Amino acid sequence: MAISISVVLLLVVLAVIFLRSGGLKASHAMVCVLLGFFLAGTSMAPTIQDGLNATASVVGSLRP
User: Fold this and answer.
1) Cα angle 61-52-11, degrees, rounded to a multiple of 5
2) Spatial separation of the C-alpha atoms in residues 48 and 16, rounded to whole Å
3) For residue 55, how many C-alpha atoms fall within 13 Å in the half-sphere facing its CB?
4) What is the per-residue pLDDT for 41?
5) Cβ–Cβ < 8 Å for 61, 47
6) Above 50 in pLDDT, residue 4?
7) CA pair distance 12, 44, nearest whole angstrom
8) Quick check: 6 and 55 in contact, CB under 8 A?
9) Four-residue CA torsion sign, 61, 37, 48, 28
10) Integer distance in angstroms from the first to the last C-alpha of the chain?
């Protein structure tokens, strides 16, 4: 759960930065949000969650 909250906060921060810099229009952001909500309700949601968890564990295991 902590990983998904961190990912959501990171995506919100990036969206705000893109909106302020003009690189992302509000309509594009809304389409991305709607895509996320609809995608979360599909059968692909567990696969995406597993992929994000695997990526987070790989990144977490890296040592500089």
Assistant:
1) 105
2) 24
3) 9
4) 82
5) no
6) yes
7) 22
8) no
9) negative
10) 25
Q: How confident is the model at residue 1 (pLDDT cuts 50, 70, 90)?
A: very low
Instruction: For residue 19, give both structure tokens.
Output: 């909106």
The pLDDT assigned to 9 comes to: 72
Angle at 24 between CA 18 and CA 25, to 5 degrees: 135
Handedness of CA 36, 1, 11, 62 (dihedral sign): negative
Q: Which two tokens stand for residue 24?
A: 């992302």
SS3 56: helix
Query: Would you state the structure tokens that stand for residue 63, as one six-digit string?
Result: 């040592």
Query: What token pair was written down for 9?
Result: 């906060």
5 band by pLDDT with thresholds 50, 70 and 90: low
